[in-house]
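Thread: sanity check for a docking pose with flavin mononucleotide

Original post by kr_44:
Hi all, I'm comparing my docking run against an independent structure prediction. Below are the sequence and the ligand SMILES. Could someone generate the full complex and paste the structure tokens? I mainly care about where the ligand ends up relative to the chain.
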Amino acid sequence: MTALDPRALRSAFGSFLTGVTVVTAYGNSGEPIGFTANSFTSVSLEPPMVLVCLAKTSRNYNALTSAAGFAVNILAETQIEVSNRFARPAEDRFATVDWKTGPHGSPIIAGVSAWFDCAMHKTVDAGDHVILIGTVVAFAQTATPGLGYARGAYVTPAMTAEALAQNGNLVASAVIERNGSVLLIDDGNGGMALPETSVGGEGTTAAVQSLIDAAGLTGKPGFIYSIFEDTGRKRQNIAFLCSAAQGTPRQGVFVPLTSAALDDVSDPANLAMLERLGREAATGRFGIYYGNQNSGDVRVIA
Ligand SMILES: Cc1cc2nc3c(=O)[nH]c(=O)nc-3n(C[C@H](O)[C@H](O)[C@H](O)COP(=O)(O)O)c2cc1C
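Reply from moderator J.T.:
Ran it for you. Here is the predicted complex with flavin mononucleotide included:
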């Protein structure tokens, strides 16, 4: 077997979008310890379990592998500095963050998007890493959007959206998907379009919520599905994938996400996005599109 180039492999492993966490515990002398990790994955719902991979070179390898538990702090998109601090050597990584001990006893960092305080279930040896598997004993989630990481860079979609909204040329559209179909409305020129609106001071999520409400559906904005610059119309577009409960829309019709049914979508960029959604809904692997109306890059969400 030919040896794989480790640098290329590291780059390929980092090519998809992940969240960023800080994994914490108490060290052997009772001091808080923690490190930045994007290898976090949920494992099981019943019983609730998560995992994170720890490099065997970690200075805290012994402490973490023998700890009674650990906490996974899902960083908020404003916490890039926290991520950097817990990824670099520092005398006391906790000195500049607010934190407290969680219900199961591991450090919980303030202002995070979510946290899971876990009892150690087991450690599994895996090459140059060890997998820490924890049983979730307590957790909390906030409305703060999480920090993303892809190709060695931080990704902050909601902050980008708010910054664009302040520039006054942001249009948000609602991709309301239900059972393999998407809600389309009349574009006024004999074609079909996604519900869309300009975003003002109310913010992007509220603007998308107003589109769902206007369609007479019960639902909520999910995650950002596409961000692209329309250089022709000199505006930024942001599309949110939204869910909706059963019920007949007051406005528009649900159209199957197949190429033939989508033929009437007049905007080519939205058509390409909906065709991608049809493919991704079939595989269950979704990505976020960044680019302009003609070309861009789809970053897969882990
Ligand atoms: C975004 C990001 C994700 C990381 N993910 C992991 C990871 O999943 N596992 C790991 O062992 N190190 C990971 N690291 C590297 C550690 O945070 C870094 O090596 C840290 O200095 C380890 O500290 P320690 O030796 O005190 O444990 C990541 C770093 C960054 C910036």
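The first helix runs from residue 6 to 13. Hope that helps with the comparison, let us know if your pose agrees.
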